[in-house]
Amino acid sequence: MEYVYAAMLLHSAGKEINEDSIKNVLSSAGIEVDDVKVKALVNALKEVNIDEVINKAVSMPATVAVESKPEKVEEKKEEKKEEEKKEEEKETEVAQGLSALFG
Asked: I need a labelling partner for 74 at 20 to 30 A (CA). Which of 9, 28, 40, 60 fits?
């Protein structure tokens, strides 16, 4: 994870993301650098537009949160309807019981 953070830090600073710069960031933070992981990260990021990925990642949670709210409202409405039906059934039972007593 720290390798990705190093790349994001370099990107936000406007620096080139290459093996040496990532190694420098990690070693200055006191992290033992694994050359294989650094090479893999740099190769993976060559074809990636980091700004585009960040913008997509930021916008996703808002979309998911908006979609989940209507479901909760519908569930609450259904629960209220069920509770109202149960109350009506109880009232009906009580009324029937009283009519049997005083019939």
From this structure: 60
CA distances from 88 to 48, 75, 77, 79, 84 (A): 61, 20, 17, 14, 6
**CA–CA gap between residue 33 and residue 38 (Å, rounded):** 8
Categorise residue 60: left if φ over 0, alpha if ψ from -120 to 50, beta otherwise: alpha
Cβ neighbour number for residue 31 with a 10 Å cutoff: 14
Q: Where are the domains of the chain?
A: 1-48, 52-103
Residue with tokens 């050359």: 35
Q: Residue type for 46, please?
A: K
| DSSP reduced 3-state for 103 | coil
Q: Under CATH, which number does the domain 1-48 receive?
A: 1.10.10.1410
- Alpha-carbon distance 66 to 78, whole Å? 20
